[in-house]
Amino acid sequence: MTAPSNRSLSSLEQKDVFVRRHIGPSEQEIAAMLTDTGASSLDDLIEQTVPAAIRLPQPLATGESRTEQEVLAYLKSVAAKNTVAKSYIGMGYYPTLVPNVILRNILENPGWYTAYTPYQPEIAQGRLESLLNFQQLSMDLTGMDLASASLLDEATAAAEAMALAKRVSKNKKANLFYVADTVHPQTIDVLQTRAEAFGFEVEVGPATVLSDESIAGKDIFGALFQYPTSEGDIVDIRDQIKAVQDAKGVACVAADIMALMLLKSPGELGADVVLGSAQRFGVPMGYGGPHAAFFATRDKYKRALPGRIIGVSKDTNGKTALRMAMQTREQHIRREKANSNICTAQVLLANMAAFYAVYHGPEGLKTIAQRINRYTDILAAGLSKKGITPVNGHWFDTLTLAVDNKDEIVSRAQAAGINLRLDLDGKLGVSLHEVVTRSDIAQLWDVLLGEGHALEIDNIDAELTAADASSIPAELQRETAVLEHPVFNSYHSETEMLRYIKRLENKDLALNHSMISLGSCTMKLNATAEMIPVTWPEFGELHPFCPAEQATGYKTMIDQLSDWLVDITGYDAICMQPNSGAQGEYAGLLAIQKYHESRGEGHRNVCLIPASAHGTNPASAQMVSMKVVVVACDKQGNVDMDDLRAKAEELADSLSCIMITYPSTHGVYEDTIQEICDVVHQHGGQVYLDGANMNAQVGVTSPGFIGADVSHLNLHKTFCIPHGGGGPGMGPIGVKKHLAPFVAGHTQFDLGNENGAVSAAPFGSASILPISWVYIALMGGIGLKKATEVAILNANYLVAKLKGHFPILYTGQNDRVAHECIIDMRPLKEATGITEMDVAKRLIDYGFHAPTMSFPVAGTLMVEPTESESKVELDRFIEAMLSIRNEISKVEQGDWTLEDNPLVHAPHTQYDVIEADWQHSYDRKTAVYPVSAVAANKFWPSVNRIDDVYGDRNLFCACVPMSEYE
Ligand SMILES: *Cc1c(COP(=O)(O)O)cnc(C)c1O
Questions:
Q1: Contacting residues for 515 by C-beta, under 8 A, at least 6 apart
Q2: In 3D, which of 136, 45, 110 has the Cα closest to residue 528?
Q3: Which cofactor does it need (predicted)?
Q4: How far apart are CA 927 and CA 912, in angstroms?
Q5: Residues 6+ apart with CB under 8 A from 78
Q6: Which of 563, 578, 577, 566 is nearest to 734 (CA)?
Q7: What is the per-residue burial (b if ≥16 Cβ within 10 Å, else e) of 317-339?
Q8: C-alpha dihedral over 576, 701, 41, 32, to 10 degrees?
Q9: Can you list the alpha helix ranges (DSSP code H) found in 478-572?
């Protein structure tokens, strides 16, 4: 068809061009798919699928679709309202130099940032290796036996340490956690919030109390110290640690990762748990995040460790292979008995920190740490000469200064574009970092002393050299070597580094290879335009506690995003603090609890949770000391209304809330949802609607409209923040008016309430909020609604094509599914012995990541295609599934035995098919090129199927000796 040559301008302008880029299927494809699903139009499909009572009567107010150029130009002008000052605030956040090879090839590379959590380890060996490097780095620097693969931030890691202490302490009757007053204030804030919800007591006081007589009176299950202290001092805490342990408590230390390069490790001082932020290892401050927290402990506490741990195992050929270890400890299996509710963590940022260590190596890191320390020494010596002696007697990078002209200094600092730490009474804090240069020291003297001080860096440096004194106490200087593994000593040229990054990337299947149809996880497009602002310095280089007037760009962007999310969710207010979905659950349940308390009903503590719920729901309920009562589901997978009514009535006096997912985790729009809300409300409870499935709601219905009171939004699912291989994420919560006074506050930032904090930073991982902002701005209200509609179409199209071959477990009205569907593998397993695991691994041979396996129903696969996948890609997936079905038939019919067929031996590696004697009853082509489409885009897994049991029996969570790889 040729276009007419004389077209009007308005027909040539591309109004919704981004909508057409984000949504996979073209208009023609949509039409064809509608025909295949038996719907006459998208509207018709939605009418058939979504119960009429919950369909929104009015469109979203979120405006028109805009072009990428327009949106980015506007956001740039908003970002320009932020002031990038020189930050010397410290408190756990430091300017850092992100090596450009890491910036471009990790942080800005979809091969790394679009990957999913490594649940299919055979196609995740690259990021698993990098996470193992992160664990080794954590272990070496902390002096501990075992480390996890990242937590959300330092403050929540401290809260996890407190919870671990309570679990493992031998002092079972103790209910007190002691916190040294030298701990960062935001950490104390988060600890207090967490402790109150658990029913623990927290006492904040001098660290020294613990080693003197008065410890006898303290019945503690644990304590936390900061090393170096928040105000910069380096104190020998060996006696305090021992005192805690003598009292049968668990000694926890929050440590600075850079300082640990020069300091004796907390492990050598006797600590039981060591945690902290890895931010200053090459991850921008980003106005609070995302960054990875590290968490390390003793071997004896390994089963109590929160979060994910990467372990070493073997594949079916005996080759070394990596995987997530001891998953049975986790929330998705143990529910309210899990160690924590951590699901999404900070994988991408842990990888950046690990690569930073790989690139610099032990010598490079030591030089960086020594330079920071030397600049601090020089700054201090100059100040002392002029009569300002630091309050702290020792330091790594932070000086606390008692000054009588604080106001004068602060105004000089402001004029110079410098931020100092100001929250200390009558004192100032100055924290140096990797970015500091000679001229910065001279400028700091100007600011602190006034000009004309006549200090010379080289003179002071020479004097210090002659005096041979150290600002780090001799008995606390590191003597043990770190990072001796070859991985930290091999890739120091940029060429070697680039290739190492690429080598690992090649082992991983991410969205830039093929569709990742993970039910409940919404692996949709993370558009390049959405990612671009993340690495703008105007967003990246702000300290979370900088003066509010320097962050007006952030405020504009966050307020705008909140307004849009209010419109989309039907709630009245948004709290941006929680930095994962599970953190949002916790924050939302806290708000519910405080609301009940405010009405004199603080005794309400029962949380109803349907049997099908995601494991984080009960795990979060446990964190606010709620009692979980399970509500049954009926044969159709819906909440059993009789059971719900009976339980709500029976428990009416103690009912706090229900946690429910919508559409249900079974992928169905239950038409009883409003009734569920009513029943719970009638009995005095609140409705927490898990927003992980918002991708089936946006523009079509909303939790607020349905009648819920609070929800978290997984911005890393519905709103396009990439999964990063297992994090970062953002889990802001939307609340109705009556809950708004009870959302999180923050000690370092006025959020308009006095409530405790749930994250270290006031706006969580603020620097990834622009991703969701750009997505909404680009799509506009109509585009967002269309995305939902096509997500539903894509799922129903898969059902139409697959249902004759595999049973689809649950459907709603008119036999429709929502945005995902569950393929039941159990009947085939019964008939043939082929399992859902075999199918998942066989999909790898076809170039696909498996759908969600055995959630929410064991023995099933849950497929969520999202709106971003085109018909071509869906058809490729369908072809693979039908071909696999055919293979299962061959086993069923006896053409292949159950022991020798391409399913049970999947995935096949390149090595398998070059072996001279091929022993199988199927040929090599069937093994690795089972359908012709594979040939054009073959993905080779780097290992064969991995043995989970071996890995857990022989737990090994450190870098593997090089010989193992030979
Ligand atoms: C992903 C998910 C969560 C948890 O979110 P995280 O960001 O991983 O903590 C909770 N509920 C459901 C239904 C989910 O799919």
A1: 523, 848, 849, 865, 869, 873, 874, 877
A2: 110
A3: pyridoxal 5'-phosphate
A4: 9
A5: 553, 556, 557
A6: 566
A7: eeebbbbbbbbebbbbebbbebb
A8: 40
A9: 494-506, 528-531, 537-540, 552-569
pTM check: above 0.90? yes
Domain boundaries, the chain: 102-358, 360-476, 570-764, 790-953
Q: Are 41 and 52 in contact (CB under 8 A)?
A: no
* Rounded Cα distance, 874 and 494, in Å: 39
Closest CA to 649 of 687, 671, 682: 682
CA angle 683, 687, 691 (to 5 degrees): 165
Q: If 0-12 CB within 10 Å is exposed, 13-18 middle and 19+ buried, where does residue 963 land? A: exposed
In the reported structure, the alpha carbon of residue 584 is separated from the centroid of ligand 1 by a whole-number distance in angstroms of: 9
> 790-953: same fold as 360-476?
yes
Pick from 361, 414, 385: which is nearest to 85 by CA?
414
- Ligand 1: distance of its center to the CA of 391 in Å? 46
At residue 227, φ and ψ (nearest 5 deg) are: -140, 110
For residue 456, the one-letter residue type is: E
Task: List average pLDDT for each run of 10 residues in the chain, which is 966 residues long.
Answer: 76 87 98 98 98 96 92 98 98 98 98 97 98 98 97 98 97 96 98 98 90 72 98 96 94 98 98 98 98 98 95 95 90 88 97 98 98 98 97 98 96 98 95 98 97 95 94 97 97 98 98 96 98 98 98 98 98 98 98 98 97 94 97 92 98 98 94 97 98 97 98 98 98 98 97 97 98 98 97 98 96 95 97 97 98 94 98 98 98 97 98 92 97 94 93 89 74
Reported for 649-654, long-range contacts at CB under 8 A and 24+ positions apart, including other chains, are 649/683, 651/606, 651/608, 651/683, 652/683, 652/684, 653/603, 653/604, 654/603, 654/604, 654/605, 654/606, 654/627
Q: What's the CATH number for 102-358?
A: 3.40.640.10
- Architecture of the domain made up of 570-764: 3-Layer(aba) Sandwich (3.40)
Q: How far is the CA of 119 from the centre of ligand 1 (A)?
A: 15
pLDDT tens figures, 327-353: 888 888 889 899 999 999 999 999 999
Ligand 1 center to 893 CA (angstroms):
41
Q: For the chain, how far is it from start to end, CA to CA, in angstroms? A: 59
CB of 580 closer than 6 angstroms to any ligand 1 atom: yes
Tokens of 664: 């249900």
At residue 327, the pLDDT reads 85
Sign for the CA dihedral angle at 15, 18, 23, 28 comes to: positive
CATH no. for 360-476: 3.90.1150.10
Residue indicated by tokens 């109590």: 304
Angle subtended by helix axes 347-385 and 457-467, to nearest 10: 90
Distances (CA, A) of 333 to 249, 574, 667, 806: 28, 30, 20, 26
Contacts of 203 (CB under 8 A, 6+ apart): 176, 177, 178, 179, 218
Q: Does ligand 1 come within 6 angstroms of the Cβ of 343?
A: yes
Kindly indicate whether the domain formed by 790-953 is annotated with CATH number 3.90.1150.10. Answer: yes
Among protein residues, the one with the nearest Cα to ligand 1's atom 8 is: 344
Predicted confidence (pLDDT) per residue in 586-627, tens digit: 999 999 999 999 999 999 999 999 998 999 999 999 999 999
Residue 458 class from Cβ within 10 Å (0-12 exposed, 13-18 middle, 19+ buried)? exposed
Q: Which amino acid is residue 672, in one-letter code?
A: T
Q: Which DSSP string do the residues of 87-112 spell out, in sequence order?
A: EE-BTTB------HHHIIIIIT-HHH
* Chain segment 419-476, per-residue pLDDT in tens: 999 999 989 999 999 999 999 999 999 999 998 999 999 999 999 999 998 999 999 9
Tell which one of 150, 152, 341, 343 to mutate to probe ligand 1, the residue whose CB is within 8 A of the most ligand atoms: 343
